[in-house]
Amino acid sequence: MAAVARRLGIAPATLRTWDRRYGLGPSDHTTGRHRKYAPLDVARLELMQRALLRGASSAEAAKYALAAPVPGPRATRSHPSPDAPVLTGGELDEGAAPRRDLDLGAANRRARGVGRAAVALDSAAVQSLLAAAVEADGVVATWDDVVRPVMAALAARWAHSGAGVEVSHLLEECVRTAMIRATPVVTRPRNHRPVLLACVPAERHDLPLYPLAAVLAQRGVGVRQFGAALPLDALVAAVRRTAPAAVVLWAQLPRYADPGVVVALPRTRQQVRVFVGGPGWARGVVPQPSERIDDLAAAADAVERAVC
Predict the structure, then answer these.
(1) What angle do CA 59, 63, 69 make, to 5 degrees?
(2) Number of C-alpha atoms within 13 angstroms, CB side, residue 41?
(3) pLDDT tens-digit profile of 218-268?
(4) What does the H/E/C string look like for the chain?
(5) Tens-place pLDDT, residues 60-103
(6) How many structural domains is the chain composed of?
(7) HTH merR-type domain: which residues (predicted)?
(8) Domain range holding 111?
(9) In terms of domains, do 175 and 202 share one?
(10) What is the pTM of this model?
């Protein structure tokens, strides 16, 4: 049992639970009280893992694993199936709180699959699931219905136990990669002057700017993205050099949402629409003439209307 658990990347206790509850146990008998996992047994366990990654509940995954045609054992295959990622970590380890499933409430199956893969630190599975979500549902739905629920569940876990920082970092990198892949290169933008996307000085949480850049680019809007913690003098220089049609300033944390950043933006010959986004601005005063933007869809619509 220990060898199979190591091979699958789950805890022995999880194997015993799957055997006891769902009948997914070893079928070969040896001397004494021990039973041996046959290759087909391991193949069924792999099917259960794949179903869990796609967001199925444990009962649904077990039903699928018992009913589905069983492929050859993993050891006999030169390449795994490209549409069926295999977990490499043990998010189902019931003996360690940081590895339990995230509390995702009523989140959809895609979100549950991404959550399980992220907790397992399986970046390949996370990226595969995010790519499938973007292709099927688009960037906005993937961000709102998949990424944000998982990020919120990870934040709640960290607030409760202090655990899961490594999971959040891995998920953020996977989301960043997925959003960059979903961002086309706009060679002939609809807007004559660009849109600048940047975090306010010292703000390092720039992840929400990536889906915004992706949606705008998909609509043919040209953007210049400057990322996290852009110093004020650099922001001022960028505005002067590009004469943008709009500037979006992101602040995740209230202590970084400084109205002085908006006031310090240089005046240009043509009007610059300034938008501030992120929960950091929710408690503070948003100086005129800047406009507050909230959710991704509304932000993309507002920026597009302002520049096109």
Answers:
(1) 150
(2) 19
(3) 999 999 999 999 999 999 999 999 999 999 999 999 999 999 999 999 988
(4) CHHHHHHHCCCHHHHHHHHHHHCCCCCEECCCCCEECCHHHHHHHHHHHHHHHCCCCHHHHHHHHHHCCCCCCHHHCCCCCCCCCCCCCCCCCCCCHHHCCCCCCCCCHHHHHHHHHHHCCCHHHHHHHHHHHHHHHCHHHHHHHHHHHHHHHHHHHHHHHCCCHHHHHHHHHHHHHHHHHCCCCCCCCCCCCCEEEEECCCCCCCCCHHHHHHHHHHCCCCEEEEECCCCHHHHHHHHHHHCCCEEEEECCCHHHCCHHHHHHCCCCCCCCEEEEECHHHCCCCCCCCCEEECCHHHHHHHHHHHHC
(5) 888 888 888 775 544 433 333 434 433 333 333 333 333 456 88
(6) 3
(7) 1-51
(8) 100-181
(9) no
(10) 0.73
CATH number of domain containing 266 = 3.40.50.280
CA 172 – CA 151 distance, rounded (Å) = 9
Q: What percent of the chain has pLDDT over 90?
A: 52
- 7-11, 20-24, 56-60, 295-299: range with lowest mean pLDDT: 7-11
Structural domain contains residue 94: no
Asked if the structure places residue 160 within a domain, the reply is yes
Residue 146 lies in a domain: yes
We report the CATH number of the domain holding residue 26 as: 1.10.1660.10
In a domain, 134, yes or no: yes
Q: Residue 162's CB: how many other CB atoms inside 10 A?
A: 9
**Are the C-beta atoms of 221 and 304 separated by less than 8 Å?**
yes
